[in-house]
Hints:
The protein is of the alpha+beta class. The chain has helices spanning about 45-50, 50-60, 65-70, 75-80, and strands spanning about 10-15, 15-25, 25-30, 40.
Amino acid sequence: MTPLKSTLKRELVIDEQAFVVTLSPESLRLTAKGKRKGLEIQWRDLVSGDAALTAALNASLGKFAPTAARERNSPRARKT
């Protein structure tokens, strides 16, 4: 097996939406393509079981909800 010593990035398409998966020696990160923020899970948390709680919390916040739905629910959209 080849050890992971540096960061590895790959594009992934899910339901016609592009994401970037980043594997580093410290963590796994999933980010919408073209964005900076996303979900990041430390390997230590994944192994200990804490990752399930983190993933459930982020899912409940709609981290990767389609852009149109996020814009409809944004505070700026409601002011008009």
